[in-house]
Amino acid sequence: MSAISYQKVVKNFGAFQALRSLDLALPDRTFLALLGPSGCGKTTALRILAGLEMPSAGKVLIGERDVTRLQPRDRDIAMVFQSYALYPHMTIADNIGYPLWIRNLDSVKRGAKVAEVAKALEIDHLLDRHPRQLSGGQRQRVALARAIVRDPAAFLMDEPLSNLDARLRLSMRGEIKRLCQRLGATTLYVTHDQAEALTMADLIAVMNAGQLQQLATPHEIYERPATRFVATFVGNPPMNILSAAVDESGLHVGGSTVRLDPEQHARCLGAGITEMGIRPEDLRFAEAGSVLTGEIYVIEPMGNETLVDVRLGGERLSVRAQRGFTAAVGSRIGVTFDSTDVCFFDATGSTVVHRVENKRG
């Protein structure tokens, strides 16, 4: 396996700039999720690494090799597509062994390698079948087997689970993570699904409008988002954002003034704060007249918990409440929070003060 590096990579499609000076380093044997909404540039970045697109500027390295202008076949990468891209007229054994066949590996060694990989992915009983005879999950395993059969320098996966139903996606998330950990594989995984990124990846690169917003561990992305965009894109429900200001007397939000942790207060003063963010699970209900007072807008029972939307003037708060929570829609309710759970943003959308570190041990 090998490290991967994008160095000031730009990609233009006519007047549209899909990637804007992308600098991104993926250490050897690391699983990186490229996460972002449709049109953010994540698939373009993957295709440039695969050699399916040429960058307008910058370069791409796999290990020590500059592969920017190399053909896909010369890059020593394997790609798993959203559509699986299996050959319908070939058996499963031939589909898996195809990368070895085009490299002229003799049939005995090829058969042994195919059998080894198929057994590892628990599809060895399917080798004589054709793709049309397989379920979606089985086809996905075949596509993975074809990718790993030749021990490439890196695996590239382009939303490989998006065609599966919700239950199968959950199962395959675990399978892919377990497989990549066992192989020690350097993996670049493109997804718009934050659950996939948070549960599978060692590192997450969040992208928006062709720019890298943050590169960090899943824990860091969730707990200490670098920008307002990251804060609201990662998390379900997303982080609540409220207009706010901080002066010598404290935090002004929702018509109330809240005292801040002294160290946090000192960092906030003069930081140009215009908004605050807080996760739904960090809000608590209280008597009306508490820190914030609003009215219940909608209640969504989720089985193990209840999501409650509270209207606060012209803004809305999402609160994660306990299972069985009930209240009348339109009734007044108080919402309170610990100020150390709050992060603060300036007018550009950058996080200027994070929540207090190590609060939760």
From TrEMBL:
Transmembrane parts of this sequence: none
GO MF terms held by the record: ATP binding
CDD domains (UniProt xref): ABC_MalK_N (cd03301)
Residue ranges constituting the ABC transporter domain according to the UniProt record: 4-234
Pfam families in the record: ABC_tran, TOBE_2
Gene3D superfamilies according to UniProt: 2.40.50.100, Nucleic acid-binding proteins (2.40.50.140), P-loop containing nucleotide triphosphate hydrolases (3.40.50.300)
Keyword Membrane listed: yes
Annotated keywords: ATP-binding, Cell membrane, Membrane, Nucleotide-binding, Translocase, Transport
Keyword Translocase included in the entry's annotation: yes
Classification via InterPro entries: AAA+_ATPase, ABC_transporter-like_ATP-bd, ABC_transporter-like_CS, ABC_transpr_MalK-like, ABC_transpr_MalK/UgpC-like, Mo/tungstate-bd_C_term_dom, NA-bd_OB-fold, P-loop_NTPase
Family, as annotated: Belongs to the ABC transporter superfamily.
Protein name as annotated: Sugar ABC transporter ATP-binding protein
Species assigned in the record: Labrys miyagiensis
